[in-house]
Amino acid sequence: MGTLDLSDNKLTEIPYELADCPKLKEINFKGNCLTDKRLEKMVNGCQTKSILDYLKSGGRGKGKGKGESAEKTENRDKSSRKKKKPLKKDDEESDEMEELNKLVVRVLHVSENPSTVFVKVTPNVKEVRPYIVCCIVEGMNLRAGNALKRFLVAQTKLHDDDCQKRTLATIATHDLHLVKGPLLYDARPSQSLKITPLGRKEIKAADLVRRLQMEADEQRKQKKRQNVSGLHKYLQLLNGKENFPCLVDAEDHVISFPPITNSDKTKIRKTTSQLFLEVTSSTNLQTCKNVMDRLIVRMAELNKFTFENKEQESVSDDETEVTEDQAETVDLTVIKMTSPELIVRQVRVVDAEGNLKVVYPAKTDLNVDAHDVTVIR
Length: 377
Prior knowledge:
Layout: E1 2-5, E2 24-28, H1 37-45, H2 48-56, H3 70-82, H4 84-100, E3 103-108, E4 119-121, E5 131-138, H5 147-160, E6 170-175, E7 183-189, E8 194-195, E9 203-204, H6 205-223, E10 243-248, E11 254-257, E12 261-262, E13 274-281, H7 285-309, E14 312-314, H8 324-327, E15 332-334, E16 342-350, E17 356-360, E18 373-376
């Protein structure tokens, strides 16, 4: 079986000669900005045979299949123009589908919801990790199928790629309903800072780092190599720091300890309907914004995938997949998403005196270079 995967590239056209490859059974051109929008819609949702048949016919009269003369192409164009009226309804439906296939991100400003969560930054973070941007996202369906798992995998990939192994920036995601605002972005001594890390019990930050370091050393001995996995990869980012950065809620609970971990108390679950997103960096503010832009676009893509595939929704609140033994006892229903649209609410970050430092997303943010993303402000 022949497979051709050219997804997520910068292709604008697909050669019609592919239709003459009989051993080609599977193709993937998703993530490319094709000039033929109907073909682009097909590569995102149709079977390989349908796409190859479309290419063989030359698409919308813009090309010709192999062995087809220019005269035949012209005659076919004339014929298609004569049949324009019967196809009008189909064209309208196609245009409507094209609009539905766009990723819509709607921005709600602080003025539309003045009671929203805000973040106050203390001077203590200046020498540690001074930059932070936050926002709230609604409309993300995490209950369906493996939606939550896909989101967590995407976040990990962003950490590895865009964030360069968290050296440029770190992403943290929280369940907004478990976040008690207003929030404080601070830097505190490692011996006094306490957090309940994901999947662990409450612990002092210094003890957590020490324990992770011991685990990393044990990993190296067992695997007989220098590379380590998990949180252990990021310990060197704290070398030489007496104070550690942290995001603290109104009850003085640490909900984030970048670049190491979030708090288990505010972790997202399948039932999470509103997400509080946080990106921090020691590099610059624009780095935070770029990463947040990329994260939101990726969330829009994942939500659209969930919407189109109509995965089943599970009441299980576990991050892991439901096992076969559990499947009979779990109530499954077909999800009823009316739209994959995401709503992004602005969050203000202010200094110790209450002066605005940054609000995200501002007018200059989310100006994404993607033809299938529509941002409504």
